[in-house]
Amino acid sequence: MNIPRRASLFLAALPFLSGCAFVAAAADISNTGATPVFEQWRETEHRGNDDLLTAGLGLEGLRSGTAAAFASPASPTAGEARRRAIWSSWRGIADLTPGGGFGDVYGTVQPSPGREFSAYARIPGARQPHRVLVQVPDSFDPSRRCLVVTASSGSRGIYGATSVAGSWGLAHGCAVAYTDKGAGSDYYDLDAKVGFQADGTPAKRGTLGFAPEGGAGAHGVAFKHAHSGDNPEADWGRHLLQALQFGLQALDRAYPRSAPFTPANTRTLGVGVSNGGGAVLRAAEIEGDWFDGLVAGEPNVSVAGAPPLYDFVTQAALLMPCALLAIDDLPQPPVQAQTRPAGIQRCAVLASTGQVQGADTEAQARSAWQQLANAGLSEPALRAGAFSTGFDLWRAIAVTYASAYGGYAAGKHPCGYTFAAGHDGRPGIATPEVRAAWWSEASGIPPGNGVILLDGDPAADQLPGLACLRSLWTHDGAAAERVRAGIARAAVNPPRSGLPIVVIHGIDDGLVPISMTSDRYVPLARNAGARIAYWRVANAQHFDSLLAFPDYRKRYVPLLPYMFAAMDQLWEHLEDPTRGLPQDALITPTPRAEAPMQPAQLSIPAASSR
User: Fold this and answer.
1) What is the mean pLDDT of residues 77-105?
2) Would the CA dihedral through 337, 340, 341, 342 be positive or negative?
């Protein structure tokens, strides 16, 4: 899951191509691990004022609320596009505020010179490729070979996990392999017929990483998560495995005298948060000794036989604007004054259609709240979900995932939604300057970055469209069956036996509720004999970046410190098996408020002894 660009804009208030090869087609990959062929290899060097981790921006540059300008706003260079993509990815994931602890208490932003290798990979039968990228630091030691493998959180682009996997892996001298897992920011302007090349620069159809098929008569904007036709979530685990295999091939190229690099002679650690955490747990299903250990934070996973997250998201889109009126002390922003008028209107409409009960707004809000509680949402999670309600995330997520699960092309959404260039709900034409920044800054799920979400009936409080999205899970019909079949394909299965796994989740997570995801996955994994540790973190919600707001950091702690600690402890065990694996923990940290974060406040669990 992710923050659309309009929300991240609000938060913001707070000779380089050295080698190239091309392969026309990709080979099959299956659970037996057939080696894929990768398309459009690129190798680039990043040293001096352009390192791997921050593109030369450093902590102060990453903290800046303004991205580095493109010299030619409509035609950025590949280096400019990359630098802005890294800036945007860091700011969307990590709490970088002074005193927040990143780079001091946990994590690092120390420069890491080295090389990048990138390409396109393709799952057998997929219409569209996914991006893979490997960062090889100059500190990599072939005699102590290690590879961290990650997938972007939410629907972000290829650099979406830099602040997590990149920060930890590069500091440990490991290569880091990334995938956008079939989503990402490769938007396509259907009117101008412009998308993005491998290097992140805009271009016409024919050389692109995402070019929608068909779509005769379609207008507006297409993006890979919604419009690839591939239901990427169903293949998240195989996306991650292909990133691992690309990482090994890239190391073969980087150190030919030390080749081959294989899972047998290279230590591999999979790590991801949110949707990236879901990809990690899907990779755990795959047979074979590909990974030595996995760390999944706030993973978006749906367990077969239990209601999927799509069920909750469509309920939240309908009910939460009303339900929040029954909750006091909402985190600010969005301020209660902003949400209350919309909530009152939503309660009234829901009551008129029999979806909530009660003679007045107060009773109707309690009715909406009770329905969400019955679905498994705690009051703290509902309170944290106010952000997603205020910024219309529930609708954006539901629209995108319905299209992806059903494999719908642009302009063919079963509930009539479309995406277009525009602002403030008014469609228009994307200017070259706006379009040029999509690859670097877009979240992978509009609205945002000059792309809007259009409802077929915008004058009716969004209710007809939201009811249609809900019906794709609750009712019958060809469209509903198509979407539900895609949801079933995305369900997680138990991990392979013996693989060490750490799952970390914030108890107050209001976007990917712990009760609907990790609390269901961990027993499934344990029943299958998994070696799994489960860290449940009190006073933690989904978005570390929201701690830029004073009211959020009074209530919540960041989740990333626990990701770094789990990677440390798991790595120490892999290096020295006499050290014990991480163990289950219920963690009760103390938010820092306005004081600088102190390590003791986080209550990091100690590593176990054997």
Assistant:
1) 97
2) positive
| Strand order across the 130-137 sheet | 17-21, 39-46, 114-121, 130-137, 175-179, 146-151, 267-273, 293-297, 500-506, 531-537, 585-587
Name which of 213, 121, 223 is nearest 435 in CA terms: 223
The whole-number average pLDDT for the span 146-168 is 98
Distance CA 474, CA 79 (A): 47
Residue 545 annotated in active site: no
Nearest-angstrom CA–CA distance, 493 and 2: 24
pLDDT higher than threshold 50 for residue 357: yes
Question: What is d(CA 67, CA 324) in angstroms, rounded to the nearest whole number?
Answer: 34
pLDDT band at 460 (very low <50, low <70, confident <90, very high): low
- Asked if 146 contacts 204 with a C-beta cutoff of 8 angstroms, the reply is no
The yes-or-no verdict on residue 299 having pLDDT over 90 is yes
**Is the CB of residue 316 less than 8 Å from the CB of residue 385?**
yes
DSSP, collapsed to helix, strand or coil, labels residue 585 as strand
Of 416, 586, 570, give the one whose Cα is nearest residue 499.
570
To which H or E segment does residue 609 belong?
Answer: none
CA–CA distance, 37 with 548 (Å, rounded to integer): 42
Active-site choice (118, 185, 228, 274): 274
Least confident of 22-26, 88-92, 231-235, 413-417: 22-26
Question: What band does 458 get if pLDDT is binned at 50, 70 and 90?
Answer: low
- Residue partners of 165: CB distance under 8 A and separation at least 6: 148, 149, 150, 176, 178, 271, 272
Report the pLDDT averaged over residues 292-303.
97
| Percentages of the chain per state (helix, strand, coil), in multiples of 5 | 40, 15, 45
Percent of the chain whose predicted confidence (pLDDT) is above 90: 86
Residue 208 binned pLDDT confidence (cut-offs 50, 70, 90): confident
Q: How far is CA 579 from the centre of its chain?
A: 32
CB within 8 Å of 380: residues ≥ 6 apart: 507, 508, 510
Question: Residues 244-259: pLDDT tens digits?
Answer: 999 999 999 999 999 9
Which residues make Cβ contacts (< 8 Å) with residue 95, sequence separation at least 6?
A: 101, 102, 544, 545, 547, 548, 553, 558, 560
Q: What is the 3-state secondary structure (H, E, C) of 562-580?
A: HHHHHHHHHHHHHHCCCEC
CA distances from 192 to 268, 435, 444, 454 (A): 42, 10, 19, 19
| Region at 328 (left for phi over 0; alpha for psi -120 to 50; beta for the rest) | beta
**Residue 341: exposed, middle, or buried by beta-carbon count in 10 A (0-12, 13-18, 19+)?**
exposed
The answer, yes or no, to whether residue 314 has pLDDT greater than 60, is yes
323-354: pLDDT as tens digits:
999 999 999 988 777 778 889 999 999 999 99
DSSP character string of 109-145: -----EEEEEEEE--TT-SS-EEEEEEEETT--GGG-
Give Cα 25 to chain centroid, integer Å: 28
Greatest extent of the chain over all pairs of C-alpha atoms, in Å: 77
Beta-strand pair 451-454/267-273? unpaired
